[in-house]
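Ticket #4471: structure output looks truncated?

Reporter: J.K.
Steps to reproduce: submitted the chain below (169 residues) through the standard prediction queue, then opened the result file.
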Amino acid sequence: MEITLELIVFTVLALFITVSAILAVTTRRILRAATYLLFVLFGTAGIYFQLNYSFLGAVQMLIYAGGITVLYVFSILLTSSEGDRSEDLRGYKFVVGLLATLAGLGVCLWITLRHKFVPSVFEHGELHVSRIGHALMSSDKYGYVLPFEVISVLLLACIVGGIMIARKR
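Returned output as attached by the reporter:
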């Protein structure tokens, strides 16, 4: 296997995402977890940009890294008090978490090792923006209008729920 700059950049991004994801789930402070999640989302956008998926990279940075993370931080600051820390995982919770982690790792490895990654099937680049726009706003079989509306209603309900919890205090 030839070591190229593309491989080095991918390896650095993959390590960055992995370390940030581990830190996000192991930190005791919820605000730090949201910050590490932001780093994971930026790293994922970097991989999209490396694959020449500029539209998906921009959506990842604007919607997920920008909007969703700000919504998480807003919800955390509204609903948590100063110095909130997560509880220690002891006993059966730790064992169940470890078993779930190992099961997830096993499923991921099984799927990855069974699949043949054929480079001829994968095409670099992206679709034309007008095709992406028509797919996003289409109500056909493979359209995304309904999921988009459901997610927007869900986010609105989360904001209203956070405000209602904050007002009770």
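Triage note (M.O.): checked the attachment and the full token line is present. The longest helix spans residues 54-79.
Status: closed, working as intended.
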